[in-house]
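in:
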């Protein structure tokens, strides 16, 4: 396996999680990080590094999914709530204008972690990627669970503090501390 590759994982930066009227929005903190994430997307894509859009998806009426007892319906398949939001959506649209480049992926996920029930790890290993840069929402839910799974799988984790947000300031602070102190990740 080649060594040293890196990837940017853009987690759940959708209308439902970020827009003022999103179904489970983190509001202004989430909106504020959009331009930073868009710059990271463009920088990673331009250097040929892998960019993965890991996007939450749910089906209406799926009462068996554990989140259905915890949160209102959100990111429902086929709805505008799943669209990438603001500057991040615009960055994706620019990259996809002539079809997605080989180093850019859209990946549906149905759990908090981008690794749970997906082919993410296989794709990263096949490309020799060892370092994951995480951005998106919510810091203390999907970003944190993805960071923990990445750590448990032996990836080096870099969490971009300017590129993550949550609807819970306390949860956001906890997640940053946990990633830094318990996972030994770089928080930049």
């Amino acid at each position: 396996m080649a060594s040293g590759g890196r990837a940017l994982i853009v987690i759940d930066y959708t209308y439902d999680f970020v827009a003022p009227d999103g179904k489970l929005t983190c509001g202004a903190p989430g909106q504020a990080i959009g331009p930073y994430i868009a710059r990271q997307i463009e920088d990673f894509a331009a250097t040929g590094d892998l960019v993965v859009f890991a996007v939450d998806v749910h089906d209406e009426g799926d009462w068996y999914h554990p989140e259905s007892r915890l949160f209102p319906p959100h990111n429902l398949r086929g709805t505008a709530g799943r669209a990438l939001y603001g500057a991040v959506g615009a960055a994706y649209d620019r990259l996809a204008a002539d079809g997605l480049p080989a180093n850019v992926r859209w990946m549906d996920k149905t759990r908090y972690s981008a690794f749970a029930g997906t082919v993410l790890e296989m794709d990263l290993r096949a490309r020799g990627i060892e370092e994951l840069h995480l951005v998106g929402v919510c810091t203390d839910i999907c970003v944190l669970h993805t960071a923990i799974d990445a750590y448990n799988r032996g990836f080096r984790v870099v969490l971009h503090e300017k590129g993550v947000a949550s609807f819970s300031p306390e949860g956001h602070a906890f997640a940053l501390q946990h990633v830094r102190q318990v996972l030994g990740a770089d928080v930049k």
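note: The beta strands are 5-11, 50-56, 104-109, 129-137, 156-165, 186-187.
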